[in-house]
Amino acid sequence: MNPGVFFLMLGALISGTIVLTPIARAWGRRIENQSKQPALPNAQQDARFDRLEQAMDAVAIEVERIAEGQRFVTKLLAERGQQGALPEGTRERPKAQP
Asked: Is the pLDDT of residue 84 over 70?
C-alpha cells in the first residue's frame, strides 16, 4: 500500500472518530433523558384528547361556515355577471359645501 494513501485513510479515520464521538454521546444522553420523563396518566391523556377533539370539531364547523359564505358570494357574483352592469344613476350628486 502506498504510504500517502495509508496516512490519508488514517487521518480520515481519526477525523471521523473525533467528529462522531460527541454526536453519539449526545444522542445517547438524549435517549436516556427521554426514558426518565414520566408518562402522563391515562386520565390526563384522555382529557387532553377530548379537548383536542372538541377544538378540531369547532375548527371544522368554522371552516364549513367560511366555505358556505364563499359559495354564496360566488353565486351572487355569477348572477350579477349575467344581469350586466347597473344602469347610470339619475339622481344629482350633492355639491360639496366650502
From this structure: no
Same domain, 20 and 50: no
72 and 51 belong to one structural domain: yes
- CA torsion sign for 73, 76, 78, 81 is negative
In angstroms, the CA 26 to CA 14 distance is: 19
Here the cell at position 19 is: 467528529
CA-based nearest residue to 10, from 82, 48, 1: 1
Residue written as grid cell 471521523: 16
pTM of the model: 0.42
Sole residue written with cell 364549513: 64
Q: Which three cell numbers stand for residue 34?
A: 427521554
3-state secondary structure of 29: helix
Residue 11, number of CB atoms within 10 A of its CB: 10
